[in-house]
Amino acid sequence: MTAKVRFTRGGEEYRFDFTFAEPSLDKTVVSDGPVSLFEVPDDVKEVRKLLVNRVATITELVKKGAFSEVWVPAFQAKDLAIALDLRTPQLAVADRPVAHVAVERVVRAAWALDAAGDIGNRADVEEASNALNDAARDLERVFAR
């Protein structure tokens, strides 16, 4: 296999040749780590509890400066919020629009956290984290009634 690489735009091209005696095998071990399969429970109370947990996890990661790790709990929070959105018909009619808007805010904040975490800008990560926290708190208030 040959790879041609430029390390700077417009810079010199370098050629790398690789020889393999045999095809490589993927020996990936499935773990219970943060990227393992995530199932959303059916019980609304459990979904709410997990959402609070994910927000707390994100808050701790942001405090530690582990911005590249926030995307997993952020997208899990998004999935949990969407699961709650599917249960809005159980809410009082006046609470349904509040819940829908809060879910949209969680989804947007999760995407913003992912993007900001990739860049590593603390101010953007904190802003997205705060937005997710506020939206999740609004969801908790509506579903706790």
Helix proportion: 55-70%
Give the helices and strands as they follow along the chain. Answer: EEHHHH
The value of Rg in angstroms is 21 Å
Question: Helix/strand/pairing class, anyone?
Answer: mainly alpha
What is the overall silhouette?
A: elongated
Distance linking N and C termini: 62 Å
Q: Which tags fit this structure?
A:
single chain; 4 helices; 7% strand; mainly alpha; 2 strands; two-stranded antiparallel ribbon; 145 residues; Four Helix Bundle (Hemerythrin (Met), subunit A)
Commentary on this structure:
There is one protein chain. The protein is mainly alpha-helical and 145 residues long. The protein has a domain at 44-144: Up-down Bundle (Four Helix Bundle (Hemerythrin (Met), subunit A)), CATH 1.20.120. It has four helices and two strands, in the order ββαααα. The chain has helices spanning 44-64, 71-85, 96-119, 122-144; strands spanning 2-6, 13-17. It has a two-stranded antiparallel ribbon with strand order 1-2. β1 and β2 (13-17) form a beta hairpin. α2 (71-85) packs antiparallel against α3 (96-119) and α3 (96-119) packs antiparallel against α4 (122-144). The radius of gyration is 21 Å and the shape is elongated. The N and C termini lie far apart (62 Å). 26% of the residues are buried. The model has no long low-confidence stretch (mean pLDDT 89).
What are the SSEs and their pairings?
Layout: E1 2-6, E2 13-17, H1 44-64, H2 71-85, H3 96-119, H4 122-144
Antiparallel strand pairs: 1-2
Give a quick rundown of the structure.
This protein is mostly helical and 145 residues long.
